[in-house]
Amino acid sequence: MKMSYTNKNLHLLLCGQFISQIGDKFYALALAYWVLQTTHSPSIMGIVLFFSMAPGIVAGLLSGGIIDFFSRKTLLVNTDIIRGLVVTGVAASYYTGVLNLSVIISKEVVLSICSAFFDPTVQAVIPQIVEKEELTEVNAKSQFLNGIALTAGPLLGGLCAASALAIVQFCRRM
To answer: What is the CA radius of gyration of the chain?
Structure first.
């Protein structure tokens, strides 16, 4: 049986997941760039990366049971809203001049924990919104989109960082 292309919930889920993952990768690259430019320390970058992963690993031990206990749709929406607000907060902190390592580390902890709930919830929702015979094809499409986001997010982030650096250098010469 061919996959139904009229499944609005599946379309919204996969598009939302794709956009969210590109944003995650874009943000991670921009953050790494800022930390290295600001601190000139790979060690501090390692600390930031630790706090962007370790809390999610710990939270991941509990997330499965919690995901099964609560509404998956509510978890998806709420964790993505929280992640969006956190990233917006980092951007606002940067533009207001108050961005520092403690702000970044605290925000990374929140993002990591939210991702520990968001990512598995996406995979848990798919079987609920597609027919059983469509599941293999939909999972393949979901993983394909993950792969594209894994490549496109850092690419776009790198292009923006390089463009911003070029603009700053141009302005300094004037």
So the answer is: 18
Mind spelling out the 3-state secondary structure of 83-108? HHHHHHHHHHHHHHCCCCHHHHHHHH
Q: Say if CB 33 and CB 164 are below 8 A apart.
A: no
Q: Is 76 exposed, middle or buried (0-12, 13-18, 19+ CB in 10 A)?
A: buried
How far apart, in Å, are the Cα atoms of 92 and each of 14, 82, 85, 101, 134? 28, 15, 10, 14, 42
Residue-wise pLDDT tens digits, 113-154: 999 999 899 889 999 999 999 999 999 999 999 999 989 888
Q: Record the pTM.
A: 0.83
φ/ψ (deg, to 5) at 40 = 55, 30
**Could you tell me where the DSSP H helices lie in 40-134?**
42-69, 72-96, 101-129
123: Cβ contacts below 8 Å, ≥ 6 apart: 139, 142
Among residues 87, 78, 84, 81, the alpha carbon closest in space to that of 107 is found at 87
Q: What does the pLDDT read at residue 110?
A: 96
